[in-house]
Structures are given as C-alpha cells and as structure tokens.
Design goal:
The chain is mainly alpha-helical. It has one domain. It has 2 helices and no strands.
Length: 61
C-alpha cells in the first residue's frame, strides 16, 4: 500500500460506504454526538503526555 500514491476519490468512496453501512445498522447519525467525550478527551490527554515523554527520551539520546 505504501508504494501506491493516495487516491482521494477512492478514500471518499470508502468513507461514504462506511457511513451507509453505519446507517443500515442504525448507529448513524449518533443520537448524542458528545456521548463519551470525557473519555476521549482523557485518552487524548494521556496520549499527548506519552508522546511528549517519548520525544524527550529521543532528544536525550
């Protein structure tokens, strides 16, 4: 896959197909788009701390 250049139109078709599948399962659009946002924010915060730690370790070498 890395040898092939990114194909924007192919990516758009894939996303559209995923949305249609989610609609068929009855999970799109979400009933409450902000449901679970606290968990997502906390995960992102922890991920950012981990990335900063890794970066500082690489620079210390």
């Amino acid at each position: 896959m890395k040898a092939e250049p990114a194909d924007y139109l192919k990516a758009v078709k894939i996303v559209e197909a995923m949305i249609e599948e989610a609609k068929a399962f009855g999970v799109w659009p979400p009933k409450n788009p902000l449901e679970g946002i606290e968990v997502k924010i906390e995960m992102k915060r922890k991920f950012n701390v981990l990335e900063a730690y890794r970066k500082s370790r690489r620079e210390a070498r």
